[in-house]
Amino acid sequence: MSYEPTDIELKHLTRCVELATEALEDGDEPFGSVLVAADGRVLFEDRNRVAGGDQTRHPEFEIARWAATNVAPDERAAATVYTSGEHCPMCSAAHAWVGLGRIVYVASSEQLGSWLAELGVPASPVAALPVNAVAPGVPVDGPVAALADRVHALHRRLHGAA
Ligand SMILES: [Zn+2]
């Protein structure tokens, strides 16, 4: 099952993959995310920054905290977070706690888990739960087949397999 994004959604998701690429090239893990307001304005974007040793520096977590400070509650609920990989449980919880709206992701946590298993990467210390297992009220769309190969390739590069 795959989600067919609109042209605008595909543009935002492509930007997420670019940010993920930038993260990888800077020694971080390949994840990128963009926060988009209901009127289409890009409010904030970030990418993974765990290379410094803080494993909580996920872009989706950064977006939630940025939104809590900078975006009014009603605008948060109407905003969409685009992301290269489905939120982890920490980021799903942060997203829901600050009242953000829809999520659109390229690769699901399930896909990422199977890719990492194929690459022989040890299991992460956090369970790979779908967003709705953590945040049942958040509308979620994905995965997006048109970009999944690019995200897969980034994870192969991270683990020295490509
Ligand atoms: Zn996360």
Keywords:
single chain; 162 residues; alpha/beta; five-stranded mixed sheet; 5 strands; 15% strand; binds zinc ion
Q: What general form does the structure show?
A: globular
Low-confidence stretches: none
> Average pLDDT value?
97
- Ends apart, CA distance between termini: 26 Å
Radius of gyration: 14 Å
Strand order of the largest sheet: 2-1-3-4-5
Share of helix, binned = 40-55%
Give the number of helices. 7
Number of strands: 5
Reported for the largest beta sheet, the result is:
5 strands, mixed
Order of helices and strands: HEEHHEHEHHEH
Distinct small-molecule ligands in the complex: zinc ion
Q: Please report which band the strand proportion falls in: under 5%, 5-15%, 15-25%, 25-35%, 35-45% or over 45%.
A: 15-25%
Overall SS class: alpha/beta
Give an account of the 3D structure:
With 162 residues, this protein is an alpha/beta fold. The chain has seven helices and five strands; from the N terminus they run αββααβαβααβα. A five-stranded mixed beta sheet has the order 2-1-3-4-5, with helices on both faces. Helix 4 links the parallel strand 3 and strand 4 (102-107). It is globular. The mean pLDDT is 97. The site of zinc ion (ZN) has 7 residues, from helix 2 and helix 4.
Give a nutshell description of this structure.
This protein is 46% helix and 15% strand. By secondary structure, it is of the alpha/beta class. The chain is globular.
List the helices and strands and how they pair.
Layout: H1 7-25, E1 32-36, E2 42-47, H2 59-70, H3 73-78, E3 80-85, H4 89-97, E4 102-107, H5 109-118, H6 131-134, E5 140-141, H7 145-158
Parallel strand pairs: 3-4, 4-5
Antiparallel strand pairs: 1-2, 1-3
The chain binds zinc ion.
